[in-house]
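Try this one yourself first.
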């Protein structure tokens, strides 16, 4: 997956999850549990629109273990208003919106942990 390679090249530690796969095509293993992937994460990055990610809510136990409250949604899966109301900074790509405090993936600091819904 191109984005995983790009983020790793910038020094990010990634824990990847896919609701329908155990590994990436290159053999990279994926976390079996979303909560495991997000534990201690500085960001949730949604890269696929699986139903499991569309159903994700900011109060879900899997999200509770995140270190920071940042969500980057490339598939418009998350209810941005609900996530923002819960204290998350939410960036949605391709929807033509911006809000104060939103961050882009490029602004994540090197060395941060990114839990990803691949």
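Now uncover the answer:
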């Amino acid at each position: 997956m191109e984005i995983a390679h790009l983020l790793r090249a910038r020094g990010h530690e990634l824990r990847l999850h896919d609701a329908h796969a155990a590994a990436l095509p290159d053999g990279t293993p994926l976390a079996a549990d979303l909560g495991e992937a997000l534990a201690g994460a500085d960001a949730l990055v949604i890269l696929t629109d699986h139903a499991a990610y569309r159903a994700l809510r900011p109060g879900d136990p899997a999200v509770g273990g995140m270190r920071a409250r940042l969500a980057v949604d490339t598939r418009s899966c998350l209810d941005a208003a609900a996530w923002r109301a819960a204290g998350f900074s939410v960036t949605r790509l391709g929807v033509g919106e911006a809000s104060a405090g939103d961050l882009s993936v490029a602004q994540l600091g090197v060395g941060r942990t990114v839990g990803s819904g691949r």
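Discussion: The mean pLDDT is 84. Strands lie at 13-17, 43-46, 70-73, 89-92, 113-117.
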